[in-house]
Amino acid sequence: MTRYQKLLVLNLFLLTFVLGTSEFVIVGLLTEVASGLNIAISTAGTLVSAFAISFAIGTPILTAVFSRFAKYPLMLSLIAIFIAGNMMTALSGSYGILLVSRLVTAIVTGVLIALAMSVASESVPPEKRGSAISIIFAGFTIASVVGVPLGTSIGQKGGWHMAFWFTALLGIVSLIASSATIPKGLKGAKSSLKKQIRLFANPRIIIAFFIPAFSIAATYTVYTYLTPILHDVLAVPDRYISLVFLLYGVVSVFSTFIGGKIAANNGIGKLRFMFLVQAVILVSLYVSSRSLAGALVSISLIALLVYVMNSTMQLYFIDLADKHVPSAKDLASSLTPVSVNVGIALGSALGGFVTTSKQLIDVSWTGGLVAVAAAVLTWISYRLDHKTQHSYQQKSSCSGEAIK
């Protein structure tokens, strides 16, 4: 990559770091928010689920609507709205205003992620797309390790409003960097919303959509209930649980970069086996839970594989759209983060069902089964790709013989 391309990728990494910090920092401040607004902790918790639902529903629709606009002014405008949304959150004095501000921020966050991926895929050499996108995705991972704890600390010391003044400030930094690095020549696709929505009528897209959803759901079936597992099953003292989450976050950073290597060559083919490995690791927690050291190894390996599919699936969606609905490439760029949010909701719900009907540790093998489902869908997609490529080669061969 050229120096300019590296600066662009670095800026998009910064953007996803800012977006991730803004999205997840409220999780660490629910108690402060509930106390400050005189609402129940469960009511404060709805802010998290409302964000995820708005993200999943609003992102593909608005990405399709905005895809006709040039990316440079569009991204700067959306970052400005993101800053305003965080300021509105920081100024919120009631649950209603806070909820509206989070919904606005959620929708803008999803569209910006899709545009960041689209800009990267169009601006770097084809052979570097996988590594570039893995770096951009890493912004979210590092946000959970650095940005969220920092924002939480600011909120706990200066009041939860200060945490969102902090994310608004990060947004301003990102706006300045984006104005200097985002290419000004990237035009939008002139296509109607109706034509772009046809992307969802393609069965290949539907199959692919549930691959990252099932993979993330497999992990979140366990991760959502990691704290009670550490406390009740492994007897980890409360003061050390945060260290286990820090370990998980640090290891998950490497997961993103491994995903970039996988995406570089035949990513879908490799993911078939990676998801089976993921299934084995999740199930291993059921056995290793008898030993704290063994369980920590299993938890670390779960983190190591949690994001391995991100880069491959991001490029896969874009390439599928390029073949079947070229005008919907920006919309296709939004599908990985949307699918991931669907997977988080699915995994959390499945884990909740298991914990109420079975033993707590049973979430491990349940998650393993979901990972196997992800492997099966990946195998189906791989076979369809292979079949399509074989058919194309046959047609090319016949055409060549006819010319002769």
Number of strands: 0
Helix fraction bin: over 70%
Task: Kindly report the average pLDDT value.
Answer: 86
The sequence of SSEs as H and E is: HHHHHHHHHHHHHHHHH
**Could you say what the CATH architecture of the largest domain is?**
Up-down Bundle
- Distance from first to last alpha carbon: 41 Å
Please give the largest β-sheet: none
Text of the CATH class of the largest domain: Mainly Alpha
Q: What structural class do helix, strand and pairing data support? A: mainly alpha
Shape: globular
Instruction: Extract low-pLDDT stretches.
Output: none
CATH superfamily assignment of the largest domain? MFS general substrate transporter like domains
> How many structurally independent domains?
2
User: What is the CATH topology of the largest domain?
Assistant: Growth Hormone, Chain: A
**CA radius of gyration:** 21 Å
Strand-residue proportion: under 5%
- Helical stretch count? 17
Task: Explain what the structure shows.
- This protein has 17 helices and no strands.
- The protein has 2 domains: 1-188, MFS general substrate transporter like domains (Growth Hormone, Chain: A); 193-404, MFS general substrate transporter like domains (Growth Hormone, Chain: A), CATH 1.20.1250.20.
- By secondary structure, it is an all-alpha fold.
